[in-house]
Amino acid sequence: MRRVPRPGAATRRQWLGLAASMAWAPAQATLRDDERVLFLPGTARRLDAGRIEADLHAWVYEPERRPGLRTAFARYLGLDQSAMSAADRERFRRRCGLFLADSERGKEVVVRFDAVPAQPVRLPATDAAGRSRLRAVIDGAPRRGNTAHLDFHAVLADGDTRRFAGRALLVPPEGLSVVSDIDDTIKLTEVRDRREMLLNTFARPSRAAPGMAARYRRLAAAPGARVHYLSASPMQLLPVLEDFLAAAGFPRGSLHLRESTSWRSLVPGEGESRAHKLGAIAQLLHDFPARRFLFVGDSGEADPEIYAEVARAHPGRVQAILIRDVTGEGRDAPRYRAAFEGIEPGRWHLLPPDGGAWPRLPA
After folding, report:
1. Taking the model in full, what pTM does it have?
2. Which of 114, 116, 176, 295 is a plausible cystine mate for 307, CB 3.0–4.6 Å?
3. Residue 148 is inside which H or E element, if any?
4. What tens digit of pLDDT does each residue of 170-208 get?
5. Hey, which residues does 57 pair with through a beta bridge?
6. Would you give the distance in Å from CA 79 to the centre of its chain?
7. Can you list the domains of the chain with their CATH numbers?
């Protein structure tokens, strides 16, 4: 049996020396007027003595305005802009923007938490991909009570009126964590058809899977419940996915997207997607050892196999696995018999793609 990986040693070294290596930062970020910051929504947790540990992940980039680059990107994807409607072409223009950006190396981002009376935090200088990550420990509880999110923003130079904001999902020690795939689980993407996937991702209006938003809202309403959206989509799609989640009425949560630094890595291979999801799940299990987990995915890719692997490695932590059935294989298919071997039958279920009734979940 393949073991679910623990957070990598490099990641632990990068994050765990953090309080010691973290510099309290009275200065502002080292950003030029044409540079921008994108923060990924991560997680945060309470420590002892009123401290909070928050995962900060920033990308510093410069929008690319070279003429013809968007056309080259469309050609690379195999999409004909002339065949799109005017509305679809405009969506394509907006959604492909971050894939045409230049990542900025050596930039220091300074962050201030909006509702926590703590000094600003300086992130490490960005790497060649424009990325910087820090697991920061800050003193003090949020001023506005037991909020579910910690909001923060980049501290910019005097006179710079721009605002680059982020948030971290504050996760209680106990409760239910819903770990959800996005494409074809809650968003109709048609991943198994490359052309349809690209059109649905870049040009067409985003469509929610029937009934899923209402189900997620009910799950998220339970005391201590939190939602973690886990996808192999590249992080350049973060604004698109956040807009989709808000418009469709899904509860806010953390987003765990894949690092992608070039067009060639836009669509991941199966091994890359699997490694990303297993690594993110391992980090959540490690960070929140007393929480229960509900995994929701779809049958279009490897979600059943990934979640079953986690359930075998952590049988007492997984409340249930729910798979939205987009392939019509049926519960007795050889694939599912192999994937869920050794797992109690009542711990995994197929969901109808039309948003029908969910099964009763085990306690």
Report:
1. 0.90
2. 295
3. none
4. 999 999 999 999 999 999 999 999 999 999 999 999 999
5. 133
6. 26
7. 9-63+102-170 (2.60.40), 176-351 (3.40.50.1000)
